[in-house]
Design brief:
77% of the residues lie in helices and 0% in strands. By secondary structure, it is mainly α.
Length: 148
């Protein structure tokens, strides 16, 4: 694209006051366009999912631990009295512990991934703002040279 063509496109966009093509700025009023920039980090829906995963992790770890301890005690008591049911309950308790760990790992991954994603998007927003700022400075320099 030639420089003159670029200037013509900018002028046409300015004449139309087009919201489809906004160069190097965001609206001064945050209610116009809905946010303070193009990238929005704090999605309430994602935050709610992350919080739910974290809460499930905390509560399930506590309550599943109680169930495991109680079941192990019951299995040991039944086995000690010679009941075959004790061995079966012990097997169920071991499987319960394995499945509990799997669920807790999944909850931790969800919560951690959403936290990482939020932080990464914030870093991306900062990088993009810096890049756009440099472009605006460069563009202003070209405008100054052309006498605008």
């Amino acid at each position: 694209m030639a420089w003159d063509e670029w200037e013509q496109l900018k002028a046409q966009a300015a004449e139309r006051h087009s919201t489809r093509m906004q160069l190097n700025h965001i609206p001064a009023d945050p209610s116009v366009g809905g946010s303070q920039g193009d990238l929005v980090v704090g999605h309430k829906d994602l935050e709610a999912v992350g919080k739910a995963a974290h809460d499930l992790f905390d509560h399930f770890m506590t309550y599943s631990g109680h169930a495991r301890v109680t079941s192990e005690a019951a299995a040991g008591g039944l086995k000690g009295e010679g009941f075959a049911l004790g061995g079966a309950l012990e097997h169920v308790t071991q499987r319960w512990s394995e499945q509990t760990k799997t669920l807790l790992d999944a909850c931790a991954q969800i919560s951690n991934h959403l936290r990482y994603t939020k932080n990464q998007h914030a870093a991306d927003e900062t990088y993009i703002a810096g890049a756009v700022s440099r472009i605006a400075t460069l563009d202003k320099g070209f405008d100054d040279r052309k006498g605008h």
